[in-house]
Predict the 3D structure of the following.
Amino acid sequence: MTSRRDFLKGAGATGAGLVLGFHLEAKARPGEAPRAEFRPNAYLAVLPDGTVRITVPKTEMGQGVRTALPLAVAEEMDLDWSKIEVVNAQPGPDFKSMQTGGSTSVSSTWTPLRKAGAAAREMLKAAAAAEWNVGVEQCRTEKGFVLGPGGKKLGYGALAEAAAKLPVPKDPPLKKPADYRLLGQRTPRFDGPAIVTGKAIFGLDVRRPGQRFAAVLRCPVPGGKPRAWDAAKAKAVRGVKAVVEVPTGIAVIADNTWAAFKGREALAATTTWDEGPAKDFNSATLEGKMRAALTGPADEARKDGDVDKALAAAAKVLEAEYAFPYQAHATVEPMNATVHMRADGAEMWTGSQSPNRAQERAAAAAGLKPEQMKVNVALIGGGFGRRLGTDFSTEATQVAKAAGGGPVQVVWDREDDFRHDLYQPATLHRMRAGLDGSGALTAWAHRIAGPAVLRSWMGGQKSPAQASVEANGALDIPYAIPALKVDFAEVEAPTALGWWRGIQIVPNVFARECFLDEVAHAIGKDPLQLRLDLMGDRGVVKFGREEADIRRLKKVLQVAAGKAGWGRKLPAGHGLGLACHAYDGRTYAAEVAEVSVEKGQLRIHKITCAVDCGIALNPLGLEAQVEGGIAFGLSALFSQITWEKGRTVQTGYHDFPVLRLADMPAIETHIVPSTEPPSGIGEPPVPVAIPAVLNAVFAATGQRIRRLPLGPDSFK
Amino acid sequence: MPAYQLTVNGRARTVDAEADTPLLWILRDTLGLTGTKFGCGQGVCGSCTVHLDGQAVRSCQTSLKEAAGHAILTVEGLSKDGSHPVQKAWIAEDVAQCGYCQPGMIMTAAALLKRKAHPTDGDIEDAFADHVCRCGTYPRVRKAVKRAAGGVK
């Protein structure tokens, strides 16, 4: 299976590309006298006072990379965690692929970061050994110091200058997990103190001298263009400085955000639109086309045996249709970017999950070379894949250019954010299962119909990998079934699509795990036992280019079921449901939900989750990702984006419900101990939450939910 | 154009801006206090929560004219050094994920605990009913509020 990761990687390899030219000289910053700063590589610098500055090559968006990645460096280097600084990398020769998505931040940097820390440690030890005239094997490191024989002790800061003159070891020894002092501990988020005092700087908090603020009036129908407008009323708003046309619409530039918003409102009243080719697009028509596509031609994603024959020979065939709607990312920080065009180049500040691509595209929009566009990566007030897109940073560059110099911050409001998202598309799923006379599952067919995210991501091109990417979560079904077919029927839609937390795995696993539950009930078998039986005694199973270790999946399922008390007697009206998935064959997650439905109201009491994502770098942060991933998945039980007359019906949190505190179930997380390399945890808990809950609804009520979102009438 | 007087984090400020300007933008754009966040501008996400005379209010729904003459407290003014009991509880429970909605949550928690030293689960749910955290920090928010309970004077 070709995965989304391949497309996120781009030209520069994610892992190997990170280990870059080693800078041996102590580097002075412009305007500073040269200092004895030890920078053995692009990831770290030891300052003369012993502080170690760690450069994080991935974007922090709440998933904890500014804690987990420095921990890997600090572990190998034996740092004092209270004496580190963390800075964000900037795209450029040292950091060619900072793309942050696909739950790959830890797995792609784990080895280079540890090697960077280990190399520095070995050099500091060698410097101390030379200073003391002892063998390096007589030296060891501890909390920012090298310790030698006879109580000798030197801090890293004092050794920095000497260490900087030594050769960088190519293959420094890495610690054994048993020797870890920091990794595996419950380490609070590095940015916690800055966040709780309001000092953390997100993209929208960037303030540059002379900065202006802009809002762009865009056609509510994506792709539409303004036909005519009158800027006079906007310019009459106090604080408005200019009204300029940009490729995405008309920008109102002002002294402050509120004036930009008010000016835009005044401008909107005078603007007429050519709404473009998408003006008649609506959800009902799309659904009709998707339903037709459930039985038409499709691109094959996986085929084992002859499904049609097996279904024809089956003693019983089950068939069901599942529906998942469009979804928005709904990050709490709306899209924004600040761009300063200068005579000799430009500088940008933005929360981007794709800093390198943001740089390339903004530079192209500004008529600059990429290296002339300096990109500063700000903290992200929610990413979830939305900020892999570069639409907002390119647009801000266009606005700043049209504004004619000086820093300009382009601010989207909540409605902009909902109307011009890069959406997760709707899908319909036709599920068919064949059973033989003994009730054994002999055939499984999963047809997915909907718009293709990958095509939208690739600018309208169809990739040969399209079917396998869109079928992620369906084609890697972990159950042994003799005849199996998974295919994808593309349905065109004029909507910009993007990667959403959990991507297509969310709807595909929803349909797969709920339908399997239907099979279990149809044959009178316990849903847990059916899954365990279908996993069997298999080990590593290949799905195209990916593979998954079925034993690890089985283990998390058993742990989750055991901890949740699967099979126990429940309070009246309660039900337990479960689901599991091997996310991209790397992270194994299983969840058991306990729910009740009373007077038409669903209540999710508790979710018990077991995960195996390899070595747990920071269990405290890992549990936060499980809690957050489940919350994100549960929100999708209730939310949807629908389209009328080419535009979204939903414009904010008032009509796109996201989970609130009172709705949040108790979460119990069990991390299955592992010595495998760390994988990822941001997305894996998301897809299993939905089917676990809906299977629990069936257990509680006998009602099978096959269509999302849940509404007021779902339980009548 | 009248100038408006208000007290922000104990400091008297004079602001010359349109009367209908939301307090949010006065704080963020005029006074440079960016700890108070813009999330929805519709009063439904809670990111912009500040205290007005000790009450938690949505600064995106409070005009400059309404705020004038009142004492405003933002997250920057909650303590000098992050030592407010709610801030300490937030760190102890490692609540934040992306952190964007958290200043608003913290201001709501501080106002709640001042009003009711030992809130029930129901009190907490009511106080946070109009807060959105897309990262899903809710279980830890609940724990942090309980941890800070009794400590807010």
Q: What stands out?
A: The radius of gyration of chain B is 15 Å. Chain B has a mean pLDDT of 97.
